[in-house]
Design goal:
binds NADP nicotinamide-adenine-dinucleotide phosphate, alpha/beta, 40% helix, 235 residues
């Protein structure tokens, strides 16, 4: 790392893997925009984490389904920092284990895609001009092996389709942004014991470490890949 701290944005940074990713990036000295849909949640997480880390944590309001919210944060980041180095699209909803593709209400599927796919997509689009101003731009789409077509089975229909689509978006963006030197990768954190993952999963620091790996790749690192623990996963 140079003398200037990288500027990183984590969506859904108030709890779970997003919160721990923000903690680990700030531990590496990044200035981390820890965003949450409710500003008080972002402020609380920052107050808890800030004493532990050398980097600066900045609480931000961001609901990734709200286009004006996303634009407003991009304007704020431009004014305060002039660039963005790392975008972690972590926010997601609805691990729908009780649903079946054959019967699920499509409004629920649409709602899921609005966060898990379009949220990441609109955030990436809005921050692209700021990522292009970075000397080491990285985008990490926090995905799931549930979105792997290679191993896809029935169940979790909205979630699985949303992550398969996020993986496709990862490939599209990686290819289109290669000339801009923006490395774009999808990461499965593994089964992690968060509110979404439930009890029994691996500790949250292990899941976040997979995300941080992709957020801190060297310039020679991969783009357009799907990884867990830094190892390729089948699409
Ligand atoms: N845990 C696992 O086993 C596992 C496995 C594979 C992949 N993943 C992926 O890892 C990522 C993090 O999961 P997690 O386990 O940490 O989940 P989590 O504990 O349920 O946290 C989800 C986070 O996303 C935020 N969020 C939801 N909708 C949002 C929106 N519209 N705008 C902004 N933020 C929003 C939530 O904010 P609120 O507090 O406001 O709801 C929360 O901060 C997700 O992409 C998930 O799909 C998790």
């Amino acid at each position: 790392m140079g003398t200037v701290a990288p500027v990183s944005l984590v969506t859904g940074g108030n709890r779970g893997i997003g919160r721990e990713t923000a903690r680990q990036l700030a531990g590496l000295g990044h200035t981390v925009l820890l965003s949450a849909r409710r500003p008080e949640d972002a402020e609380r997480a920052v107050a808890e984490l800030a004493p532990e880390v050398p980097g600066t944590l900045v609480p931000c309001r961001l609901d990734v389904t709200d286009a004006e919210d996303v634009r407003a944060l991009a304007r704020r980041v431009e004014e305060e920092f002039g660039r963005l180095d790392v975008l972690v699209n972590n926010a997601a909803v609805n691990y729908d284990t009780t649903r079946r593709a054959a019967t699920v209400d499509l409004d629920e599927v649409r709602h899921t895609l609005e966060t898990n796919l379009f949220g990441a997509w609109r955030t990436a689009q809005a921050f692209l001009p700021l990522l292009r101003r970075s000397s080491r731009p990285r985008v990490v789409n926090v995905s799931s092996e549930s979105g792997s077509l290679a191993s896809m089975s029935g169940g979790t229909p909205a979630y699985g389709v949303s992550k398969a689509a996020l993986n496709a978006l990862t490939r599209k963006l990686a290819d289109e942004l290669r000339a801009d030197r923006i490395l774009v990768n999808a990461v499965c954190p593994g089964w992690i014991a968060t509110d979404m993952g439930g009890p029994g999963g691996d500790p949250v620091d292990e899941g976040a470490a997979s995300v941080v790996w992709a957020a801190t790749l060297p310039d020679s690192g991969p783009t357009g890949g799907f990884f867990r623990h830094g190892e390729p996963l089948a699409w």
